[in-house]
Design brief:
The chain is mainly alpha-helical. It is 96% helix and 0% strand. The radius of gyration is 20 Å and the shape is rod-shaped.
Amino acid sequence: MAKKVNAKRQAYQKKQEEQGRNIVMWIIGGLIALGLAFAIWTSLG
């Protein structure tokens, strides 16, 4: 029984880690896009 719970816990932890990486990559991508948009906006003005 303990092995089954441990396996479930490890699978959940792996899933959470992958989702966390996805969120971090989206945040970084959004910041880069905003930075590029700001650079274009300032160069036009």
